[in-house]
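[09:14] KT: can someone run the structure on this one? pasting the chain below
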Amino acid sequence: MIKIFETEEDVADAIAREMKAHLADEHPVFCLASGSTPQMSYMKFAEDDEIHARVQQLKIVSLDEWVGISRESEGSCYQMLNQDLFSLVHLDAGQIEFFDGTAPDLEQECQRIDHFINQHPITFSLMGVGMNGHIGLNEPGCPLLDHSSVVDLSETTRTVAQKYFNQPAALDKGITLGLSQVAGSKRVIVAMTGERKAGIVKEIFTNPEAKLPAQELLGYEHIDFFLDSEAAKYIK
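[09:31] RB: done, structure tokens below
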């Protein structure tokens, strides 16, 4: 289902409420996108004093990471989430299971995260959408997988992602959950905000021939797309 809100802040308020509600799941496991789109949602979630006593049972599982970028590096997916959420709600390291993009055996790293999800099913996922329609680092043309994998990054992703780094970064590959793993979450929200996303939003919802990764999440009752009015300007 598509839900259109007037402003980006309205989207963030709605997402923060959903995150808070899903803390009440019996064994809450969140899979969360990093980047600029969800930042306000995380801020609003973290500023609610009521949640701080309730996050002790929360587990976080990684969505994706840049291959070759250490988690301590500015611009890593882990570092962005740590800055925008983990540090604000005081999650400890034992609550976070994250891809290591510098692991010597990346296939084994995929298996480690897959095993974690098998043992701890995801109860809530918040996804963003890239300028080329990617979800996580599942790029256009990636197969629909029910397991993690190492992927080649598109030129669009390599270029757009430079904004997260304080100096040019060599980004060739990523490690990511599969789209079927994301869709298998108990609840999924896909957020797209701002006029810069209006073009890809139009493609997702009006061009079924585009075969974009984000389109693989359409048609599920438990998956909603949250848009602000600027992102939704080209759709009804």
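[09:33] KT: thanks! The first strand starts at residue 2 and ends at 5.
[09:34] RB: yep, looked fine to me
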